[in-house]
Amino acid sequence: MRLPIVLLIAASLPAAENWLPLFNGVNLDEFEIRSGKAAYKLDNGEIVGTTVEGSPNTFLCTRKTYGDFLLAFEVKTDPRLNSGVQLRSHAYDKPAEVVTMNQGARRVTHQPGRVYGYQVEVATEKSGASGGIYDEARRGWIHNTSNDPGCKAAFKDNQWNHYYVEARRDRIRTWVNHIPCADVVDSLDLDGFIGLQVHQFQGGSPAEVRWRNLRIAELGRHSWKPIFDGKSLNGWNGNGGGEWKITDGALHGAQATGSTERGFLISADDYSNFTLRLQYKAVRGNSGVFFRMGEPPWSIRGSLGYEVEVDPTRDPGGLQHPGARGWLVHTGPVAETPHVKPTDWNTMTISAHGRRIVVHVNGVKMSEVVNDPGPLSGRLALQLNPRNDLEVFYKDLAILSPGK
To answer: Other CB atoms closer than 10 Å to residue 324's CB: what's the count?
Structure first.
């Protein structure tokens, strides 16, 4: 079993000439220390981070930012110490209140200068969490690998451990000692700095973590491209019941009580592989974001593709295949999802690449299906459900990019 995994890793890496050292090997001038007071130095080509009593989490951060990349490094840490490597990260420029989902949702305020963002976990054999993805100083765990037997056994205490990380588009994958660990879809940050963490520590003597052979292959950058201009319905076509107009830069949809005809606002273009980001405000009634819709006529029994639920009371970010298999993922009442804001603006992302579909609302994953047998391409659409009084707003619609 080991050989195919190694070959998979090799096949995913760029050509050797694309790799560059992450630092010059002579000094740490290309980095800056953020958030804490831990000490960093060079020792025989290795970067050594040492704990300082009373210091919070500390990060040695690149002055340069990176978008899509492949990162490789080796790390060895004192088994008493937790560590990690930040990806696409940033530092707060003012006090920030965030909702962290660790051990239940709770609000936390971070001060200016605090580093936040994706972190590849460097832990211990006992914890088994190495290779997981943690959202430092923000949402908490995105992918905890401690329940994955293969990945849990990959990291070795008191040894050099090899890490590979691929950050491409809205997908981050990790390998520890050639064992695949995390594979997450998350588009909250598409670029940022890389940082080497020395975790806060209490012990009888200082603990240290060492990194060596840090290499990076840059793979370009992705950016959000608007598909609604905020002024007109250019690129969108109405179909069926209800009414759409532009209000304060947003698409404003309404459907009257007693109406019987379902309405859609449908994109002129087809989309196959994409990540869509938008903001929605569901004031009342039931709406939804459709994608991979087939050809007309569009009806509940027709080729409707997938639907992501938009409703002020239930199933935020829930996923359906209407007219075919029905509900794929229920997400429950809005009252039980504290990060969702009923009747206010929420940010939704829908990532549909091949047969994997992932939906987030306000940065929290709500739905995911893998190897789903549904349609692979089609139109986008915004729905106005009939029968009940309905009012809904959509704005800031953007596609990350079609692609492989």
So the answer is: 14
